[in-house]
Records
---
Amino acid sequence: MSDQAYDPSQEGAKMSFKGAMSYGDYLHLDAVLEQQHPQSDAHDELLFIIQHQTSELWMKLALHELGAAREALIGGDMAHMFKMLARVSRIFEQLNNAWDVLRTMTPADYTRFRDALGPSSGFQSYQYRMIEYVLGNRNPNMLKPHEHVANVHQMLAGELERPSFYDEVVRLLFRTIDGSEDNMPAPQLTTPHAPNAEIQTRWKMVYEDVDAHWRLYELGEKLVDLEDYFRRWRFNHVTTVERVIGFKRGTGGTSGVQYLRRMLEVELFPELWHLRGEL
């Protein structure tokens, strides 16, 4: 082993970045790393902030992928849509893994800075709300927490005016199985997607003849995969909150664990889950 310090420049690595684009420049790291502002002297508050900020960054990417996937679906570009949906599932896997880090915070740790949060709460995440709206879980009552930010409220309300991603999937389902959209149920623009027997019947036809409807079958399984990861994320949220604060009310005024447990009952693509009992 050489006693000389390794010098990457000897192999061509650039070592001077004066006047050139560096790693920190490209990522604007100074700006990113200066956005953590604990409101107390509690050691674990930085963990809490970074956990939620990084989650919001992953959700930003999820929305980027879901938006592009919807446009690809509308344009008939199934191959790219499948890739994007697979990526969204892996994003939610990352979000799931993040709960493991937050769970290292004990109730005593959280109590030290909880009051500093005021009424702020993850309940108010507009990106999470947009993900639900894009996928089809559309509760117009959930616009209210965003009324104080006009552009955010307008963006969310605008999403409720167009068919969800799942509505577009259903359109493809009927166009393929029936040969037209004539019998397709109207998009559920401003209500959570409720189970529909006609939709489930057509999904059942797909799953009973996979070879004849392979593309739709693959799409159905991609959606189930996505919702599987999404449900796990919700479940991990519940167990983390219960572990840290028990059954106290959430900082945003919700019933805390009880509210989160109610969210576990929400199904994004109910027909794809319900048909399994009929096969």
---
Amino acid sequence: MDVFIARQPIFNRKMKVYGYELLYRQSRNNYFEGTDDDQATTNLINNTFMVFGFQELTEQKRGFINFSQNLILSDLVYVLPKDKVVIEILEKVEPNEKVLEACRKLKEKGYILALDDFILEQYSEEYIPLIELADIIKVEFPAIQGKGIQQMIEQFGQRIIFLAEKVETREEHQLAMDMGFKLFQGYYFSKPVMENLKDIGVLNVNLVRVMNELHLDPINYGSIAEIIQQDVGLSYKFLKMANSVYYGSKYRISNIKQGLTFLGIDDLKRWIYLMMLRGVQCTENAELVKNSMIRGKMLSLIAKELRIKGESDYFISGMFSAIDILMNTSMDKALEGLPLSHNVWDALTGKNNQLRWYLDIVIALEQAKWNQLKRESEYPMLSAEKYMRLYLEALKWQRMLAD
């Protein structure tokens, strides 16, 4: 049975990733359709731990997993490692005595409990025992009314961690910080905080010069080596990369020109674009940069799997898919001056072509927007399980480069 697993980061007050909520859907007949809570969570747990690898998805952080009332009362939860998960109790769970007793047992065993989609006005007094058992309360931030949540944070904040979810704007994030929330989640965090506005000048000029050289025919490796050697930091990173395990070098690469010959054009282009992307990275947008790297690698893997020509274009499109957000400008301006193919330019600026279609597929998978994937297409598709395996391979690649 095919299952898609997406993840949404949860941040602490220092913008460090605290954990990932694992988002799940089951697809029948190869469509991306929802199913009941019990079956979805069961399939998620099975595929996460038995097939894909929990640690790969959560990067050694905690994984937040939704639990329905039936599953809270079952023994399924006890197959999960208590030090690796957070048990999210869905808002539809009734706080009857059986549920409360099951939650008490989970607490005794050392599990962390979170109340999901908490809206104060919708909770009656009968929920107080469940609130008192919770370690984390995930508050729907846009639904906050009055000062009730503020009073709850003041009353329970020393024992309960309050998480602001569905945070959409900078103003909401700042307000949540001021109110005392300790964890944060929402689409706002996929669009980075721009404390200092960035423009095209942030991109390393030497990297752009190298890219221009790579589009000449014939390519002059001597000129490229000279450009890289003018930049101490770039030279260091290039030699370190050329000698890395990832590129599989059996021999020591001791100079820039030797490394250029060893790598070849395609790998050199990938590295250059990766360095460009990292050039605009800061603490606030690190997660989006990481997602962009994963997109690039996954698109490259999709192109290879489906034997689509122009794998390098697919990689570049994924890598630069959020460059407008990272640089706080329009996509046209962000791409200005870069020697990109027409195919890549069209895809990144929103024109409908095959590359754009697969880019949208990857973004929809990343954000768990399954309904967007139901449309028919003239382009070949992979199975749900294959997409997930490629996604995990892209995660491993990104993590290896970060080490």
